[in-house]
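[Solved] Which block belongs to which protein?

Original post:
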Amino acid sequence: MTTEIGRIPVVQPRCSTCSLGQFCLPVGIPEAELERLDALVSERRRLKKGEVLYHANDDLSAVYGIRFGSLKSCVTAPDGREQVVGFHLQGELIGLDAVADSHHPSTAIALEDSELCIARFGELETLSRQVPSLQRQLHRLMSQEIRNEHQQLLALGTMRAEERLAVFLHNLSERLSARGYAANEFVLRMSREEIGSFLGLKLETVSRLFSRFAQNGMIEIRQRHVKIIDAAALRELAGVTGIHC
């Protein structure tokens, strides 16, 4: 399958002036080369909540920088169940996991209304050969994805259920804080069922753990609105091991 993105309107995004550049492709690129990156990243795409960006097995045609919003990556298990394998936030690049064989291994779905910058991969690959700092940044981002996968496997294989949820909340807080949002108060864009799928926990277990964390005074929870009350206790339970989800 091939994802159609050719009809997306051009709205002239600029990497050189983007406030999210510190998380995305422009990191470390000399100012003189940023204009070339601006010319390459010349399209944006808007997604409604629940809309698919690309499907598993689609050809790799582009990678995407999340300008605002959030997405999830999921695969279909042999029994037909959806398995969430990642959550992607504003400023992050999505689609690099398709570089290995030029096909996306997972389906990417918007968790909320979102907007993405589009970098056609063939053009990005060509430019990266000409701009060493861009190539290093691509390698760094791909290396970070591999590291995150290793940390997730470690958590799923060795951590108790409450530790997994603590790690998830702690790292979500850290990622949001790095983007200028409040570290101790945020809205979960993913459902508890999706959190459970990602952490290898049943929905009932996730709901019970949220209630326990609230009863223990670590958090306040109202539907999807989370307020961290005792950040030190949450960090201690998490062990600050660093799953990035």
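(Second protein starts here: sequence line, then its structure tokens.)
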Amino acid sequence: MIIGRRIYFDIATGSVLVDTGERSGNVVETTLDYDISVYKALNERVRESYDYIELEYRQYDESFAACNGYRINPKTKKIEFSYPDPNQPEPVYRKPLSEEVDELKQSVAELTIMIAQ
């Protein structure tokens, strides 16, 4: 058996609360009540505050692989993907600024001593 994704989302913002993922093999399709009882993000909320969509197995596979995020448009209940901007370079990772400040303070102190001598 193959089962597509069920994506639960906040009806006000479209933010994804739970993506059940795709399943295949010896699996059983879950009910809405089961999902609500299992997923904390759902059972802690008022039921009227979220909704869900169901996708076919492998539906939008390429989009999921290429995206850096997705949401559900609350008005249309259609999925919307965000993709990395090819014109935006990858972020440059640095050590914490507090460490850099400490190192700079140490360098300034050493230079001050050298100048004073």
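Accepted answer:
You had them paired correctly. Confirming on the second one: Residues 2-82 form one domain.
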